[in-house]
Design brief:
26 strands, 3 domains, Rossmann fold, GMP Synthetase, Chain A, domain 3, 5-stranded parallel sheet, alpha/beta
Length: about 500
């Protein structure tokens, strides 16, 4: 039970098929597997052992999956890290993970080096790119090309494979421990329910340090033998051009990316669209944006749901029927879902409750945090912290994050509902609704929006528009018009960043 078997099996099955295309270069599955073997020999030679944790902090390129699968073959544990993190954030994940090795891009070491200097356990330091600093081994030197096949380490299903640090809303991020079994089963069960074709090209625009990109853009593609068109970052013009050029493409996106493609296509419709289908996940997709995308690109969006602690995907609109706009779909077999109240009692159909998930991809634990693990995995169910309702057919609709719920004068206001109204205003490109402290009411409903270029829409007009469409206690009394909304590295709107501005 080692995820590297995805690559070795596919390389044996379709050795000459292109595995990755990147900036004009192409690598077949045979070549990719050979590079992984060469890298595994190199990592072993510099002292990496089975069970050792290794930081992977490099930018998206073919080297990312090469190092990833090489670490799996060695039997090590990978700790993917965002390259733009600052020293304080890096020091936490480096120390907490117990890392013994580091692989990072030489252009992003200014914050990493002082963090590592405080952690003497990280003795193996490897840098990708030109002119690596003193004390770092160049990544290129680790490709031991004449060493031959590297035998896959026989990891057990419950062995840790990935330690993924979640961007918690409070405190320092927690390390979600995902096993080989978790990541492999999630890729396998999700692949089964989607209708892919051998000639499909998967656009890899999500950062691979994030679980969504790792599972969908990379692991599922490697498992199925699909060609990955890899981008080093999301550039709307480049992705738009590729949509026009590729005959049959699959897109995995977050709502911000969907929105940017819609904005570009609104002013410059695509000459043709090769999109067969799009999966949107990572955050709720406004229904208005979903409809615009489907019309402009002549392709269906299937909303999906997951979280790092679930490797990540567990609920999705099924391909066997028409998606339900606004719904994240049904649990993917064999995953199960429940909606419960604060005492973990099931709520009646149609009522709002916290979404709980069980299934094969649920994490093993939070590293070094037994109390947080017990609280999150209470009763054998993953407590997601998301509020949702379920219709008569079992389709799930996310209402909001439990922690984002606004309680205004004793009334519950779900930001997602108000955001959906805001997005029906054509001049609004992005919107975020959140609660701000209020002396009398406890919280006041507030909104931040980005307007389409040239719009003359005012804050008062926006307030009135929403007021006309929702109950009086729900509409935002405060509307802030901004040039842009702060976002996480994966494109999610960062509401706490708006509150502090």
């Amino acid at each position: 039970m080692n995820i590297a078997s995805f690559l070795t099996n596919t390389a044996a099955r379709v050795p000459d098929k292109t595995a990755i295309r990147f900036k004009g270069t192409a690598i077949t599955f045979r070549e990719l597997n050979a590079k992984v073997d060469a890298m595994a020999h190199g990592l072993s030679k510099v002292g990496l052992k089975p069970g050792d944790a290794c930081i992977l902090m490099t930018t998206d390129s073919p080297n990312w999956p090469i190092v990833y699968y090489a670490l799996a073959k060695v039997g090590a544990v990978v700790v993917p890290v965002n390259p733009i993190y600052k020293q304080r954030e890096l020091e936490h994940s480096f120390r907490d993970s117990g890392a013994k090795a580091f692989v990072g891009h030489s252009g992003y070491l200014a914050e990493a080096i002082p963090a590592m200097d405080k952690i003497p356990e990280i003795k193996i330091r490897i840098a990708e790119g030109k002119n690596p600093p003193k004390g770092f081994t160049p990544l290129e030197d680790l490709f031991l090309k004449d060493a031959g096949e590297y035998p896959i380490y026989p990891t057990k299903p419950d062995d840790a494979w990935v330690i993924m640090y979640t961007s918690g809303t409070t405190g320092m991020p927690k390390g979600a421990v995902l096993t080989h079994f978790n990541l492999m089963k999630d890729a396998e069960v999700v692949a089964v329910v989607r209708h892919t074709e051998p000639d499909d090209v998967v656009f890899s625009v999500l950062p691979l340090f994030h679980c969504y990109g790792q599972t969908h853009s990379m692991n599922i593609s490697i498992y199925l033998g699909l060609t990955i068109l890899m981008f080093d970052k999301f550039n709307v013009e480049e992705v738009f051009k590729a949509i026009e050029e590729e005959k049959s493409s699959i897109l995995f996106l977050v709502p911000t990316m969907v929105n940017r493609l819609v904005e570009l296509a609104t002013t410059r419709p695509p000459k043709r669209s090769g999109v067969r289908f799009c999966i949107s996940g990572g955050a709720s997709l406004p229904v208005e944006i979903l409809h615009r995308f489907e019309k402009l690109f002549n392709a269906t969006i299937y909303e999906s749901y997951g979280l790092t602690e679930c490797s990540p995907t567990c609920v999705e609109n099924p391909f066997s029927q028409k998606p339900r706009p606004g719904s994240i779909g049904l649990p993917i077999p064999p995953f199960k879902a429940r909606l419960v109240d604060d005492d973990d009692r099931d709520v009646p159909q149609g009522e709002v409750g916290e979404l709980l998930i069980s299934g094969p991809a649920v994490m093993k634990e939070y590293l070094h945090q037994p109390e947080a693990t017990e609280k999150t995995l209470k009763g054998g169910w993953l407590h997601t912290g998301d509020l949702a309702r379920m219709d008569e057919d079992g389709f799930i609709y996310i209402v909001d994050r439990k922690k984002d719920l606004i309680i205004r004068g004793g009334y519950n206001v779900y930001p997602r509902e108000i955001e959906e109204v805001l997005y029906t205003l054509e001049d609004i490109v992005e919107a975020a609704v959140f609660g701000m402290p209020h002396q009398d009411l406890g919280e006041e409903v507030s909104a931040a929006v980005v307007l389409r270029k040239g719009s003359k829409l005012t804050a008062e007009e926006i307030k009135q528009y929403v007021k006309d469409r929702v109950a009086a206690y729900k509409y935002p009394r405060v509307v802030k018009i901004m040039d842009e909304l702060p976002k996480t590295s994966t494109g999610k709107i960062l509401k706490r960043g708006i509150k502090t501005e």
